Amino acid sequence: MSCESALTSGLVKVDDYSLRAEFSKPYFLKLKDFLISEHKSHVVYPPIKDIYSWSRLTPLESVKVVVLGQDPYHNTGQAHGLSFSVLPPTKLPGSLKNIYKQLSVDVPAFKPPLIGDLTPLAKAGVLWLNTCLTVRAHTANSHSKKGWESFTDAVIKAVLDREDDRGVVFFAWGLPAQKTCERLGIDEDKHLVLRSAHPSPLSAHRGFLGNGHFKKANEWLRKTNDSEIDWTGLCSAEPPEQ
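User: That's the sequence. What structure does it adopt?
Assistant: Structure tokens below.
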């Protein structure tokens, strides 16, 4: 499948009409032209088939928690369409190690897996969403401010405006994620926004480690939605073959 057709095809599972309408807006048409050009001259991550994997794994009507990232990992074999997630045999990035570390504190039954595939949590209602969905290989933020942010803003708004009116937890780790939440004007009487430093090894000690976000998220979900996330769903993940 070509880049052009993949960007607006069934690879994205968005049944909401407002999101389908995004594909024909001027900003998205400009973004599509940019990405077609990028694919002709550079390696782009994630693979075309994985750009929208977050939408297939976590239908918007099932979202309980939104984890906002910036742009995909930009090294070989890392990005697969979920923020912070990597597929085996890729080694765990530092940010994900710190996420596992905090999970171990918040959820005593959580035993950090050896792999970084967050698909089980995506299927459980955690939307691992980057605000920018593609990146040029080995060049961080190379596709930022090209239009993806407008599309992912629309995704978040679709979650906020669901007909079921259920509240959602937002993990706003780091200033960019916090600014996204502020820009969207999230109603914090209805939704829970948990803010802290980013889990990156460069900043995790400034407030991510010890933030208690996973415990707080489940406490709030149980109170408001009579539900929670089974974070231990990752624990059964198989280690990579040696």
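The chain has a mean pLDDT of 91.
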